[in-house]
Amino acid sequence: MRQLGNINQIIPSLQQYPAESVALAQTISYVKLNSLSQIILTKPKNITNKKLYGLVHNGVVGGVAKSDGVQFFGYLVTDENCRFSVSIGDKKAPGIAKGSGDDLIAVHFIPKWQEIKVGDKVTTSGLDNIFFSNIPVGVVTRVETQSSYKVAYVEPYSDLYHPKIFFVLLDAKPTLLYDFDVATLSTLSSAPTKQSSQSIIKEVNSTFETTEEIPEVIDQTQEEVVYPEPATPSTAPAARAPKPSKPKPSKPKPSKPKPSKPKPSNTLDMF
Question: Which of 17, 42, 159, 246 has the fewest CB atoms found within 10 Å of its own CB?
Answer without folding.
Answer: 246
